[in-house]
Structures are given as C-alpha cells and as structure tokens.
Amino acid sequence: MTAPATDRGLRVRGLKKTFRSFGVEQPVLKGIDVDVAPGEVVGLIGPNGAGKTTLMSCILGFLFPTDGEVTIDGLRSDDLTIRERTGFVPERMNFDRGVNGRAFLQYMARLAKVEEPEDRVEALLERLDIADAAERPLSQYSRGMLQRIGLCQALLATPDFLFLDEPTSGLDPNGVMLVREVIDEERRRGATVLLNSHQLSEIEKVCDRVLFLSKGVISDDQALRSTVSIPIAVTLLPGSFDADAVAAAVGARPEHNVVQVTVEREAAIADIVRRLVETGAGVLDVRRRTADLEELFRRER
Ligand SMILES: Nc1ncnc2c1ncn2[C@@H]1O[C@H](COP(=O)(O)OP(=O)(O)OP(=O)(O)O)[C@@H](O)[C@H]1O
Ligand SMILES: [Mg+2]
Asked: Among residues 176, 188, 221, 172, which one has the least CA distance to residue 46?
C-alpha cells in the first residue's frame, strides 16, 4: 500500500513520555510535534537529559509513548515494512562482543536480507575506514571503532530513513569528517535523516534544519540551509572602503568592516564580491552565515 503524499516522511504528533519509578512520575516529553520531509536532514539538539534519546526511542518503537502518535510514510514505525527501510545508530552500542567486526556485520546483513551481503559489508568496512580491524573481536574495539561499526550496521540495508543518536561521539577528527561525508552521501541518495549531537559545528554543516529540545518541548525550529536564500558575510579590509559606496553597490551598509547580504544563488556571490571590489574595497573574507547554534543553546536552555 502506498501512503498518500502528505504522509511521506516522519510525522510525530503530540508525543508525550513520562517515566515512572518508585511511584515518582517524571514527564520527559510533554507534547512533541516533529515533521521531517523525505530527503531532509534534521538535527536535534538540547541539553543533557532533555529527552533526545527518549524521543528517538519512541520514534523507533523501542519505548512506548505515554501519548501521541508517530508515523513514517504513513505507517507506524514498528511496522515491518518500515523497519526494513530504517537504519539506526544507538547512543550506546550493545554488541555481542566476542564476535569480530566483519562476522558481526555479515550476520546483521543476512538478518536484514541484504543482497550480496559480503560485498556490502566489505564496502562499508572500507567506507567507514575500519577494514583493518575487521578480524578483531568487538570486545577489543575502542569507543570510536565501535561507533564506526555501528554506522556500518545502520547503513547495511541502504535505508530510506536514518536515525543517528550521537553518530560522532567518540570519533577522532577524521572520523567526524567521514561521518559528515557519509551523511551527505545519504542525503544525495535521498535518505531522510534525523540525528542528534552535541557537536554544534557538525550539526550546522550537515543539517538542513535544527530542532531544539528543552524542558519537554521543541522550543525552536530553524532552517540552516535554505534553497531560496543564502545569507553571506563579507569582511572588508578596514580603511579600504567607503560605507556609502558599499551600500549603493550591494544594498547593505557595512557594520564595522563586515557587510551582510543575502543572495539567491551561489553564483551571485561572485557578483557581490566584484561589485565591492569595484567600489575600491579590499575583500578579506567571504563566508556563509549560518544560525549561531551556540547562541541558540545559551538562550533556550
Ligand atoms: N528508562 C528510563 N527510566 C527512567 N528515566 C529515564 C529513562 N530513560 C531516560 N530517563 C530520563 O529521561 C530524561 C531524558 O533522558 P535522555 O537520555 O532522553 O536525554 P538526552 O537528551 O538523550 O541526554 P544526553 O544529551 O545526555 O544524551 C533524563 O532525565 C533521564 O534520566
Ligand atoms: Mg542521549
């Protein structure tokens, strides 16, 4: 059964989760609405203990929500056809640690009925740069190595939906870059991705949109990559420019020596620089402005 177009992607409505232990109730999620469109990469940020992992677990059907509804392409997330199309990297790896990395992935690939499982496993071991350790038991893996195996496992069945709970935790800088490239590849392939991370710079680089979870609700929802407008900041050589001439050339006055403009296409960035240079201004730096997530964090928590 094909879902109606409006139901495509991830839809969370009125999700609540209250933990009860020893007669004490702790409401963690107090009514969450989230939409992730097909092909969108969305980051979930928020303080420790905000409920990011709890939300992921409710979405994946590992935890029963107290109230509310989760659908993926119009179906419940624990529906088998959805499970087959979903990859997941958990916050903490819980593997059968006696087995080696390659054997573990081959076992998981067969479970997931991956075509040509051995080729797929080798390709992923290479892609996540962990092939050298493939023969060693998981019990000897470092945290970052386990994380790489977890990512291989999540990608085995070429999933349409990827849920990544802190995919870069424990990874070295090369690993962090690798994960960013892999997420970008998944995006280009058309995968829908929800990830949570405390590495705000990574979220900023890889996500189309970011959700801020705090005090049980989504308190902010910000687009990071817009396809219709690209905000840029151009730093000018101090003393090299005339503010009025700059304002006339690009329609924005410099503040100190930085002029902020919005263009509609990447190609228009060169035109802005040319116009600035024509006024006699020296251009030191051009960068895309993105939301200041650290500032958002400080403000919202
Ligand atoms: N199984 C559980 N039983 C009781 N309380 C729980 C359970 N799981 C999580 N909690 C509580 O729910 C709250 C949210 O936890 P959660 O792990 O979802 O936070 P998080 O946003 O993922 O934090 P972090 O950034 O540290 O990973 C915490 O107060 C935690 O103690
Ligand atoms: Mg967590």
From this structure: 221
